[in-house]
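This section describes the prediction task in plain terms. A model, or a person checking by hand, is given the sequence of a single protein chain and must write out its three-dimensional structure as a string of tokens. No templates, partner chains or ligands are provided. The sample shown here is typical of the held-out split.
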Amino acid sequence: MSAITVRKLPDDVKPRLRLRAAENGRSMEAEAREILVEALEPEEPRSIWPGSRP
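The expected answer:
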């Protein structure tokens, strides 16, 4: 596994991450990892026609 360092986060991000992690029963590191993994998952193909299947 790889490691990264994130610099120059806005001041309000760390407390919000800490709160979100606590709400989900995770460490801040585990919560940040989950956020990144979830944000980068491939999206399901979508149909341009409402109600139709891709």
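For orientation: The two ends are 34 Å apart (CA to CA).
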